[in-house]
């Protein structure tokens, strides 16, 4: 968009843009950046929709020659949600912080020429899911791994189950309990590590009557859906 655009036009551009921003370009040179927050501030200052935009010509950006370390440092130092990528002032590309994080976790090498719009940032956004025994939150999901934080309430337990397409690695973060791995019962407490191979029957029990049992779980395999569960025994009557 140009520097002569109205606030209304800019709002439409931002609404259509998944990055929630508008880039102001003149003769292929980037001369300004406007976010939806900037537009709100302009309206609160007394401007109306038909007024021309006002923008600060100073903005944070990265150069096409900046390497991975430089991009990391700029995102961190300026706490920016997005960074334009310029070559001698000309707009070449745009990357958001969410895209940068997601691509690195997917083991995609950073390049200023990469099509960042194809990066699936939803892998970074996960809800908390409640279960009869407690709750879990996925902290990261990719094509080859998933990481979760699992909280098991006092006097509660995960069903005796197995998975056909993934193995699991547990680190006990807080509390104590009993892990059932195959035919073994193992006492676990904070700092302990447990490996659960593919198709191995397993469960973990919180024997405490007052304290939650929290573990960090990393899954490795080819599929991480919740339907990859074969239950053998469940305290809550689930099949």
Could you name the key traits of this structure?
239 residues, alpha+beta, CBS-domain, Jelly Rolls, 2 domains, six-stranded antiparallel β-sheet, four-stranded antiparallel β-sheet, 4 helices, 40% strand
Task: Give a written overview of the molecule.
Helices cover about 15% and strands about 40% of the residues. The chain is α+β, with helices and mostly antiparallel strands. The chain has 2 domains: about 5-120, CBS-domain; about 125-235, Jelly Rolls. The strands form 5 sheets. Strands 6-7-8-16-11-14 form a 6-stranded antiparallel beta sheet, with no helix packed on it. The chain has a 4-stranded antiparallel beta sheet with strand order 9-15-12-13, with no helix packed on it. Strands 3-4-5 form a 3-stranded mixed beta sheet. The N and C termini lie far apart (about 55 Å).
């Amino acid at each position: 968009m140009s520097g002569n655009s109205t606030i209304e036009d800019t709002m439409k551009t931002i609404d259509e843009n998944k990055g929630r921003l508008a880039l102001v370009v003149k003769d292929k040179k980037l001369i300004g950046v406007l976010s939806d927050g900037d537009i709100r501030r302009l309206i609160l200052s007394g401007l109306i929709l038909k007024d021309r935009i006002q923008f600060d010509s100073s903005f944070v950006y990265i150069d096409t020659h900046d390497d991975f370390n430089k991009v990391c440092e700029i995102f961190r130092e300026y706490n920016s949600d997005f960074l334009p990528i310029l070559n001698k002032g000309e707009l070449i590309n745009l990357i958001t912080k969410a895209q940068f994080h997601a691509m690195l976790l997917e083991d995609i090498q950073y390049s200023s020429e990469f099509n960042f719009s194809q990066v699936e940032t939803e892998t970074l956004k996960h809800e908390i899911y409640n279960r009869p025994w407690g709750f879990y939150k996925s902290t990261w999901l990719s094509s080859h791994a998933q990481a979760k934080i699992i909280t098991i309430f006092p006097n509660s337990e995960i069903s005796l189950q197995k998975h056909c397409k993934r193995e699991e690695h547990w680190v006990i973060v807080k509390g104590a309990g009993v892990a059932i791995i195959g035919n073994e019962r193992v006492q676990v407490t904070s700092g302990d590590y447990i490996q659960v191979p593919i198709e191995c029957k397993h469960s973990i029990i919180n024997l405490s009557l007052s304290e939650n049992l929290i573990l960090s779980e990393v899954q490795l395999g080819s599929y991480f859906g919740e339907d990859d569960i074969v239950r053998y025994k469940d305290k809550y009557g689930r099949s």
